[in-house]
Model the fold of this input.
Amino acid sequence: MGTSLQVVEQLSPGRNVDAYVQSVSTIPILTAEEERELAERLHYQSDLEAARQLVMSHLRFVVHIARSYSGYGLPLGDLIQEGNVGLMKAVKRFDPTMGVRLVSFAVHWIKAEMHEFILRNWRIVKIATTKAQRKLFFNLRSQKKGLGWMNNDEVKAIADDLGVDAKTVRQMEGRLASSDTAFDAPVDTDEDSAWQAPAAYLEDMSADPAAQLEASDWEESSQKALMDAISVLDERSRDILMQRWLSEEKATLHDLAAKYGVSAERIRQLEKNAMNKIKVAMSA
Done:
């Protein structure tokens, strides 16, 4: 799969997504016979050129799927990049003896990569933490008929269709409809309006000063352990993590790829390796 990976990286969306979409739309679609021949060459002979052609001919399909997730407010280029990873995984695993077209097989892998990306990035506070919630999260957004709240009949229909109870559907609908609210009042807020901020009237009746001090010490210790773990990384890996996760204006894979003169996929690999090293260091 090395050759196909290089080609996808060369056509990576980057900053000019429109140019990328236009480029992949000019790549011919394979006929069923051509696809089967290429798949057999890959499956039985490990022909990387066949893998390249299979990947290239389906890049436009990834773009089509990525556009269906535009409502989450995430960069289309990043969605396409994740979808391309899923496409390559599908091509690698595709068995021509299954009797189905590659596009039917690949859709699962493409969407799986996009789903994980969306759930990691759509909100800081995750709204879907279990497999059932993730399924409901994506299906509920597509099945809702409008922007308003659903009536009981609509809730029951979706609950029956997805195999969950109505209460779960209502809970997820509330999560999707919620918005982030600042706890503290803005800096330039006058005294007469400051009381409207949650920090002015919310009180945690269960607060324990001793527990708070202990938690503060633990957090300080954890932060020190994290910084110590980061310090053992090489300069490039350290910068990638800082830019991707610890900076106020987080950099994209393509920003860092341009900075270091490598592909976005290579940046993603370096980021993953660095995260694994940090986990090992902090658990030691």
